[in-house]
Write a structure and sequence with these properties.
377 residues; alpha/beta; Aspartate Aminotransferase, domain 1; Aspartate Aminotransferase, domain 2; 2 domains; seven-stranded mixed beta sheet; three-stranded antiparallel beta sheet; 11 helices; binds pyridoxal-5'-phosphate
Length: 377
Amino acid sequence: MTTLDDLPLRPELRGERPYGAPQLDVPVRLNTNENSHPLPPQVLTALTEAITATLSSLNRYPDRDAVALRTDLAAYLSATTGVPLTYEAVWAANGSNEVQQQLLQAFGGPGRSALGFTPTYSMYPLLARGTGTRWISGPRRTDFELDPVVTAAAVAEYQPDVVFLCSPNNPTGTALDLAVVEAVLEVAPGMVVVDEAYAEFARPGTRSVLHLLEGHPRLVVTRTMSKAFGFAGGRVGYLAADPAVVQALQLVRLPYHLSALTQAAARAVLAHADVLLATVEEIKQQRDRIVAALTDEGLTVAPSDANFVFFGTFPDQRAVWSALLERGVLIRDVGVPGWLRVTAGTPEETDAFLAAIRAVCADGRALRPTMVAEVRS
Ligand SMILES: *Cc1c(COP(=O)(O)O)cnc(C)c1O
């Protein structure tokens, strides 16, 4: 049998594993921050009509530049943040992961580097690896926040071609103070990418980094329809930036990368933004309920502006993760010693998760130290 070792694979890919959040068949799945609410019936009707209308022209390539979709996305961002944007400043692809990959294709690559602040989104180093970009891991405070002075100093020291900031940060949940982004922009020699995948879930008073776009042509804000819009299966992510950044990405994107079906479906969903954002409010209530309940349980909980909660600390978080799975609740162990992440979903899912975690804490067996010692001090 042929194995990977028999193939002339790039050396940096040898021994590596593919991205892999477990896709297990359990009753309560709260491990990938999806929106637990299926699209409502009126959105499904609009989707069916929009897709049907494209079918007679599927023999033709789609609009390469997805102008109608980008126009709708620009209007959505402007309406929800008050920042005026036109389609020239917006770009879309198959998920924000593809947008970020295109950014590295254009601004990273062999001989170049990208800097992120761990723990953060596990896809950044993988995208760097795939594009031949050197990945550098920078420091985060023990409360997982980014300090403006320390963060800017890391950027000044490493001189990365691309900086990845994630706000709210996955897996920790907290949004960035705009002062951190401003401090980084002051010293960054290259592009500064702020991933706002969870921006719609922010607590009141949290401002979007879109407010800093004006006057910062090297700032990029990425967003996605995978979380707030409940459209993870549709695969649509996008960015807002100076129009010159969009022109740069048009040099590296595959022609016709967004199918006609995807473009039509995304526009139909976007036309119902108000209905979908109503479920975001329900999810935020569940998020706050989880934060309060876990705090009552005596656990440490990171403040969350997202649709998930990061909590701990456990002597062996893997044991707690397994004990929850035995009770039919799948959450995420992102590999930060002592900590686990749970997605906020429906009220019933919150009930099931809270009952399971209380049972695990009451039982106590999974809480006993089985590892050497707690890594965080
Ligand atoms: C879920 C997530 C995304 C979304 O990726 P898509 O490719 O748009 O589905 C992007 N960034 C972060 C930090 C995420 O957690």
